[in-house]
Amino acid sequence: MKENGDIHLKGRLKLYLQWPLYMTVFLSVINVIVYLVSKKAGVLMIPFVIVYIVTVIILYQYNKTKMIEDTARLSVDYSGLQQLLLDKMEAPYAILMENGKLLWMNNEFRKVLGNKYKNNSNITSYIPELSQRNFPKKEDAAAEFEIVYEKVEYKMTLRRVAISGLYDAAQILKLPDGMQEFITVFLEDVTELNEYIRANEQQRLVAGLIYIDNYDEVIESVEEVRQSLLVALIDRKINQYFAKANGIVKKMETDKYFVVVQKQLLDKLTEDRFSVLEDVKAVSVGNKIPATLSIGLGFGKESYAQSHNYARVSIDLALARGGDQVVVKSNEGIKYYGGKREMTAKNTRVKARVKAEALREYITTKETILVMGHKMTDVDSLGAAIGIYRAAAALGKTAHIVFNEVSAAVRSLYEDFMKNTEYPDDMFVDSEEAKDMVDDSTMVIVVDTNRPQMTECPELLRMTKTIVVLDHHRQSSDNIENAMLSYIEPYASSACEMVAEILQYIVDEIDIPAVEASSLYAGMMIDTNNFTNRTGVRTFEAAAFLRRHGADIPYVRKIFRDDMDSYRAKASIISNAEVYRQQFAIARGENLKVDGPTIIGAQAANELLDIDGIRASFVLTNYNNKIYVSARSIDEINVQVLMEKLGGGGHMNAAGAQFEHTDFDESIRRVKEQIDRMIEKGDILG
Question: What share of the chain is helix, strand, coil (3-state, %, to 5)?
Fold first, then answer.
């Protein structure tokens, strides 16, 4: 129908009505041909053709009007039937404008909104989750998501529909002028279905592995006649704890257990934050060392085999993070519980020897050895890299250390190697040079970090197949996954300590130049704060090994000396420190005007621990448009767990994080909030 009111037919109906007109033309042509052949016959045929034409015209005009009236009436009846069917449809259905305004809804949709509905209202006033950004952008496109309205769960389907092609007579509602498209909304009640899905998920089984971290050390610390009693008490604590959750515990070895619990009961264990960790520590029959547990739980939605695989990944991660904690892995991610105490260092170096032999095998089969630490290289990272450089040289290979930015902390050490003519010019290479060296016979060794994005050149990890990781930080969920050899010891004081142990087994009677031994020794000193933090028997054994190879203590001390500006900057940080909750020192370092503000911040955090009553210190410094947090503690607070909550990591007594902005007030607020949250949950050990 046109705007002037004239009605026109189209399609097959129009063609059907026009056929008599076509026949009229055809008969006229035949009549002309007959007249040319025979004038009498042509003249005789003319009256009959005229009668036919008049009859066709009369019938066409009469039937066209009647047919259009019948078609319009049918269209109107069909429109009414459509509206009736939509109104009576049991599923809620509505039509919206592009801005969310309700144009029309059926009876079921009106029942959903109930008495809250008002004319000409917007859908967002009833369902806040439904906004224009959720609407499909393209014609005939659909979008589906679930909402909860009045405690009922709905699956909502939105579809964008074009108005073009609709006739006035066929419309079931009055549409605003200029409107080109509208949004249809279809609701499906899925409350009961979701309840069944949740019930099924809650009844699925969670697989778990339980290891006694320090079984040998605990057994050796108690009299022989009491050893069986100690083991029995630990067994009882574990069995009783999981029996409360209707779990099944099966002892596989003297220090290993397999456990199965339902998902719904795992949630209850999570609520009490796995108190079995503390229960086992409390077991004492004269043992000088408390027993600690590592628990790995896995929940996979696909199969029970996947749950068991997740449990194995979880227990490996718990052990790599130092033990005394629970790691739960599911399809949604990884969660950590516990980890309040530092893992007891093992006196045996069997593991170091095994890893050294494996490293030797890899190095001897490769032609290009690339060694890299973490970004913003410190002395421990550089010292460990130099140690690996010496290991490769001892095996007749040439290694290259990937090194991009020379910070103030390592400048003196770096320049000493660059000036030494005994070392090649390509001992240190940047990321671009390192990537050009990569081929099928390339090997990458990562030291002092296990997170890919923290390395000097993350691209190298994707370009090479043979990767080795040596680190003393607790492993996080975003660790380097494709490593052929991973040696992570959270109890080690530093990466330099680990490398020093490896050097003792890499080749017999290895010869280490004094400057390299001093570099390793310096890395140990910086990470132990002059051998006062995180030191064990093996730490001093490694230090003695380096001293025997010429580690120069006066030289190391000169490396650590500060200039006057750095000393004043550190004093400025300490002087503006505030004491939060009477036990946490928080300080900021703004506009320090020194080359390495993060290093100064770490040093200030260490010195703040010398204040009586301070259990942990947090120093914030800005560098490269970011705020870096240096967190330190003695033995009471696990700052590594706290920094992990802020996106960082580290050790129990030395950790850090960074914020992608330079707002000190906001950063300090977040640190304080996290402290408060962990105290409330009991994650901070008192």
Answer: 45, 20, 35
C-beta separation of 373 from 446 below 8 A:
yes
Report the distance separating Cα 330 and Cα 310, nearest Å: 7
Q: How far is the CA of 340 from the CAs of 77, 152, 293, 322, 345, in angstroms?
A: 76, 42, 12, 10, 15
Q: How far apart are CA 53 and CA 501, in angstroms?
A: 113
Q: Which pLDDT score is estimated for 496? A: 96
Which whole-number Å values give the CA distances from 431 to 375, 410, 434, 456, 464, in the listed order?
11, 18, 5, 7, 14
Task: Choose from 69-83, 307-321, 433-447, 556-570 the range with maximum mean pLDDT.
Answer: 433-447
Quick one: tokens of 287?
């043992």
How far is Cα 237 from Cα 677, in angstroms, rounded to an integer? 29
Where is 249: in which H helix or E strand? strand 248-253
Provide φ and ψ at 19, rounded to 5°: -60, -40
pTM greater than 0.85: no
β-pairing verdict for 428-429 and 93-96: unpaired
Arithmetic mean of pLDDT, 363-390: 94
CA atoms of 674 and 63, how far apart (whole Å): 84
Element (H, E) at 28: helix 12-37
Mean pLDDT in residue range 592-613 = 88
- Whole-angstrom Cα distance, residue 80 to residue 232? 80
Residue with tokens 């494996």, as numbered in its chain: 358
Residues 6+ apart with CB under 8 A from 224: none
Strands (DSSP E) along 71-151, which ranges? Answer: 93-96, 102-105, 142-149
pLDDT of residue 348: 65
pLDDT classification of 169: cutoffs 50, 70, 90:
very low
DSSP label of 169: G
Range of 106-115, 388-397, 399-408 with top mean pLDDT: 388-397
Q: How confident is the model at residue 289 (pLDDT cuts 50, 70, 90)?
A: confident
Alpha-carbon distance of 243 to 320, in angstroms, equals 28
Beta bridge partners of 206: 261
Mean pLDDT of 569-573: 91
Do residues 172 and 182 make contact, with C-beta atoms less than 8 angstroms apart? Answer: no
Q: 3-class DSSP state for residue 497?
A: helix
Instruction: Identify which of 417, 401, 414, 403 has the alpha carbon closest to the alpha carbon of residue 369.
Output: 401
- Summarize the confidence of residues 263-289 as an average pLDDT: 87
Query: Alpha-carbon torsion 27, 28, 33, 39, what sign?
Result: positive
pLDDT attached to residue 358: 92
The two structure tokens encoding residue 11: 């399609």
Q: Is residue 207 within 8 Å of residue 260, measured between CB atoms?
A: yes
Query: What pLDDT does residue 369 have?
Result: 96
* 150 has a pLDDT exceeding 90: no
pLDDT at position 327, please? 92
DSSP letters for 514-535: HHHHHHHHHHHHHHTTTTTSS-
DSSP states along 536-605: -HHHHHHHHHHHHTT--HHHHHHHT---HHHHHHHHHHHHT-EEETTTEEEEEE-S--SS-HHHHHHHHH
Helix (H) or strand (E) holding 411: helix 411-419
Mean pLDDT score across all residues of the chain: 84
Nearest to 502 by CA among 528, 526, 469, 458: 469
Calculate ∠ Cα 264-268-270, nearest 5°.
110
